[in-house]
Design brief:
By secondary structure, the protein is of the alpha+beta class. It folds into two domains: 241 residues, Alpha-Beta Complex (Conserved hypothetical protein from pyrococcus furiosus pfu- 392566-001, ParB domain), CATH 3.90.1530.10; 103 residues, no CATH class. Helix content is 27%, strand content 26%. The protein has eleven helices and 21 strands. The strands form five sheets. Strands 1, 4, 5, 6, 8, 9, 10, 11 and 12 form a nine-stranded mixed β-sheet that branches. A six-stranded antiparallel β-sheet has the order 15-17-16-19-14-18. The protein has a two-stranded antiparallel ribbon with strand order 2-3. The chain is globular and about 65 Å long. The two termini are 14 Å apart.
Amino acid sequence: MVTWPPMALAKPFRALRYDVRTAGPLDALVAPPYDVITPSIRERLLAASPYNVVRLIRPDAPEEAAAALEAWRADVVLTREGRPAVWLLEEAFAGPDGLPRTRRGLVVRLRLEPYSAGVVLPHERTFPGPKEARLRLLRATRTKLSPLLVLHDGGLPGPAPSRAPDLQADLDGATSRLWRIDDTEAVRAALAAVEAPLVIADGHHRYETALRFHEEEGGEETAYVQAALVSRDDPGLVVFPTHRLASGPVPELDGRFRLEEISGPSEGLDRLAAIPRDRPAFVLVSPLGAVLAETDAAGADPLAVLDTTAVDSLGLQDVGFTASASEAADAVTSGRAAAAFLVRAPTVDQVEAVARGGETMPQKSTYFFPKLTSGLLLSPYDE
């Protein structure tokens, strides 16, 4: 059996996964990440299968998830791989812009490092509440239930094997395919392409929760988290904007921004796209109409050039978020929001510049699409 270096940044792992002969079709067993599961989505997933992973990642109580996990392993609903492997992941999807894409990466065990080490870097702020909830779940299940999405500077993974994928599932229009790579030399070659520093694209709360759990527990078995590593050069890597909805009063913009009345959100988005990326801007949609707000060039500060930073500077209260510009505008028209702020998505370069500069973006500044599917591979701590 191959022994991997104790301090290796990325390692293969013995996945825990559904046995479809017992659990049923994988499409009925997977779910989105816990942070986008609304009560109605949860009910739909629970109705899809008694074994849907939502019972583990979004339980009524952590103890219920732990009990379900134990029962499913005993009943061979979930089975453990006998040999460590990395997994080649391909996700075929169409984004909010309607364009088809394929994102490719490697699912591995990623070594936990404090941000101060400069090996794994954040780009967004986190909040205590979600981390406390995830920590209770992690203590109860002792299992990494869903992967983080992490960017690296290395090259793209090699082509997918010619054989059929070992796992395939469809969720909300995205198809995930996974191939097991367990040959020692193939694993070494795959992991050799992974280069630090790494930037967390999605999963900051889970990373920080896992790091805290490791600090509590100690030992090598808790020193890793499950992650899908994607090259920053992957052509399928795309970031979409998250627009802001304000429930309270909107601060005065005169004197802080150059303002121009426009015909509506559609014109506003077109105008935004034409503005140089070093000039923060946004479209304000209110019952009075639509306004393009723009500033001068923000200089070299990677955080100051972001549209979300400009909106965040207004000090809005009771802010909501949506990835859809039309939904944002409809919320204003229907009275569900006092105003909407339409913004551009940061580029991957901007995300990395903020992370490498030791700064963090305002909450919900990035929407790496699609979110990784939960339930394909689990990773217990008893490696």
